Amino acid sequence: MPDKAGHVDIDLERSAERIDHDVQSLTGSDYTLSAEAIRRYAYRPEYRATLDYFTHAWQELGFTVSEDPVGNFVARNRPPGEPVFGVGSHCDSNRNGGRWDGTLGVVCALEVCRASAEHGLDLPLQAISFLEEEGSGFGQMVLGSRIVAGRVSEQELREQIHAIDDGRPFWEHAQEAGYEPARWRECAHILDDLSGWIELHIEQGRVLQDTGRRLGVVSAIAGYVHGDIRITGRADHAGATPMDMRADSGVVAAETIIELERLARAAGSGTVGTVGEIEIAPGLINAIPGRTRISLDVRGPEDEAVHGVIRDIERFAQRAAAERGTKASYSQRQTVPATPMDERLVAALEAAASASGESFTTMISGAAHDTMCVAERVPAAMVFVPCRDGLSHTPEEDANPADAALGVQVILGAISAMVEPG
Ligand SMILES: [Zn+2]
User: Per-domain residue ranges for the chain?
Assistant: First the structure.
């Protein structure tokens, strides 16, 4: 039984073995479209086989398994209407994916359910595996959980979201696979009974590995702004134009890139800023850059800090441009707000992680996850486990089942503490 700190002892070795067995089983040829990578996505036979694998495993535990009108997978051990605690992730995989991203979270949700039964905890649980997190089938990230959260429109589902393989609409593919996309609004109900939600995922970065920690408790999922700065100068001849007669947009871009690094560092609290694209015109060795575009990717757990960096870099670019006789303008492509995790749930996970005696840290997720869409309605948090060299979305992806088993133990401890009466 759990003690006051929500500590639960499970057979870590046995859990690690089962987790490893499930993850390795799902690399078999029935479960991936490619022999070189773990490639699976919605409505394909490999994806169906993966859901069947999990259906069988959860039914063996006495859970009731269902799928919502578009194919989000649900398994629960209490009747509808009774409160349950949610665990899960996604089991689709990037086209060049590995075996751990997403799948590990569903496998660990299964292990949470197994260990809860095995150790007599009998926690009220509901597992979810969200459809199309990676966008491999339809080019849309976190699609299943966005449908659940009502963050897509019917028109998008009917006409605007197309399969990468054949260009036909999501709607048609869902229908052909036996689903009822016309009832997509009912997908929201899969969150109705959840008193909380925890997703376990590989970190997809190197923080845990490089600091020697076995677990990360996620306190927020970063929001981001994507935009561009365009600088317009004069594309004069590189030889015939003296240095003090130039309007060089490339130099302004260079100054702006350096300033973005400074601003992101100064903003602190996990804010990061990146220029990943540079486009120079005319792009010739003997021409002064007349026009330069740089992309901006600014992220962090605090929206104010992120938007502050964007505001300051825009001002800087305009000032720097004016000083060199050029002009700079900023345009935004997309912005997504940060998602703070539930404080009580984070504290419960930290307490359970402390009680385990193993090294962990509280951290921010820089990558997007389905939990962003769950957190709007349900107190939510995430647990990260290290992945080798931070690699993900590659067959090289690697993680340690023993760390995942520790994650399962910590999640069980936190859930026990959260669902206990009083
Ligand atoms: Zn993932």
Answer: 12-220+338-419, 223-336
Q: How far is the CA of 361 from the centre of ligand 1 (A)?
A: 20
List 88's β-bridge partners, or say none. Answer: 128
Beta-strand runs (E) in 173-268:
194-202, 215-221, 223-232
How far away, in angstroms, is 384 Cα from ligand 1 center? 11
What are the residues whose beta carbon lies below 5 Å from ligand 1 (ion)? 101-102
Among residues 287, 8, 291, which one has the least CA distance to residue 123?
A: 8
Domain at 12-220+338-419, CATH from 3.40.630.10, 3.40.50.300, 3.40.50.620, 3.10.129.10? 3.40.630.10
Distance 51 CA to ligand 1 centre (A): 16
Are 227 and 295 a contacting pair, CB within 8 Å? yes
Residue bearing tokens 């940060």: 338
Ligand 1 centroid–CA 404 distance in Å is: 15
pTM for this prediction: 0.90
- Residue among 11, 9, 19, 7 nearest 404 (CA): 19
Domain 223-336: which CATH number of 3.40.50.880, 3.40.30.10, 3.30.70.360, 3.30.1360.70: 3.30.70.360
Say how many C-beta atoms besides its own lie within 10 A of residue 200's C-beta.
27
Ligand 1 centre to CA of 221 (Å) is: 13
- Phi then psi for residue 108, to 5 deg, are -70, -30
What is the pLDDT confidence band of residue 422, given thresholds at 50, 70 and 90? Answer: very low
Range list of H helices, 268-324:
303-323
The structure tokens listed for 398 are 């690697």
- In order of 86, 153, 343, 419, the CA distances from 78 in angstroms are 12, 31, 26, 14
Q: What is the pLDDT of residues 137-182, one digit of tens each?
A: 999 989 999 999 999 999 999 999 999 999 999 999 999 999 999 9
Kindly give the distance from the C-alpha atom of residue 227 to the centroid of ligand 1, in angstroms, as a whole number: 24
Q: 139 with 162: CB under 8 angstroms?
A: yes
